[in-house]
Design brief:
This protein has nine helices and nine strands. By secondary structure, the chain is of the alpha/beta class. The strands form two sheets. The chain has a seven-stranded mixed sheet with strand order 3-2-1-4-5-9-6. It has a two-stranded antiparallel sheet with strand order 7-8. The radius of gyration is 18 Å and the shape is globular.
């Protein structure tokens, strides 16, 4: 059994992009007409040399026109599978590396983005110190993270079918919307927090089942899958959709 946040991340992401893709797809059912990446596009402090750490599949850059804005974009991830996807982002430099040991010189970037990744690390403060190191004086950081109540209904569903290991925070560290601003303030100034106003209204069972499967190191049993299907379908039949609450914030600060 994996026992640390980084070991969990390796088991989930090192050889596949499928788990992350299934989770992103669930969020296509957001109640905010402005999707997450478009919302970020209006708020990220993008300028000059931009680094995204833990960039995953590079989905953000399908919304943000980095080339049209003249940004010099560098993308990193620890996962070889993710880096293969990132190399499809036009004009981006891609480096496979650990977030706590960035292979860049001091003061190399104007912006560092960490989108939903710091909770996967064993030592988030070490990564934040690295972010500060590679930023130029006056450079900006943007960190997206979830709160303790994020996706509470999915967590309850996991417990109800006998799979508490599928709860979102299982084997993640304590970097959350509640604690994150304090962590960021240890290495940066002018910390600001803005919530993203959105929940989920999922109209069908399959996206929920795909999300649960993406969280599992051990596959759901047929009985667990059937139980989840019945619970979700009952909610859809009664309410028109399976409603899930979100709690996501964007933390920004200066070097």
């Amino acid at each position: 059994m994996t026992t640390t946040p980084s070991a969990r991340a390796v088991s989930q992401y090192a050889t596949t992009t499928g788990n992350l893709t299934a989770r992103i797809a669930l969020h296509d059912h957001g109640t905010n007409p402005q999707g997450w990446f478009a919302w970020l596009d209006e708020r990220l402090p993008l300028a000059g040399d931009v680094l995204e750490v833990g960039a995953g599949t590079g989905k953000l850059w399908s919304q943000v026109d980095h080339r049209g804005r003249g940004l010099r974009l560098t993308l990193t991830d620890f996962s070889a599978a993710m880096c293969a996807r990132l190399r499809e982002v036009s004009g981006a430099r891609v480096e496979r590396c650990d977030a706590s040991q960035l292979p860049f010189a001091d003061a190399s970037f104007d912006t560092v983005v960490a989108n939903h990744m710091l909770y996967h690390l064993d030592d988030p403060p070490a990564a934040l110190r690295e972010f500060a190191r590679v930023l130029r004086p006056g450079g900006r950081i943007a960190v997206a993270v979830n709160g303790n109540d994020h996706l509470a209904e999915l967590n309850a569903l996991a417990v109800a079918i006998g799979r508490p290991d599928l709860v979102l925070g299982f084997r993640q560290n304590d970097f959350t919307a509640e604690t994150g601003p304090g962590y960021v303030a240890d290495s940066f100034t002018g910390v600001a927090v803005e919530p993203y106003p959105c929940d989920l209204a999922v109209p069908a069972v399959e996206p929920v089942l795909a999300y649960l499967a993406s969280m599992a190191d051990e596959p759901l049993t047929p009985a667990q899958r059937s139980a989840a299907r019945d619970l979700v379908q009952a909610r859809i039949d009664a309410e028109g959709s399976f409603r899930v609450s979100k709690q996501t914030v964007l933390i920004t600060a200066s070097r």
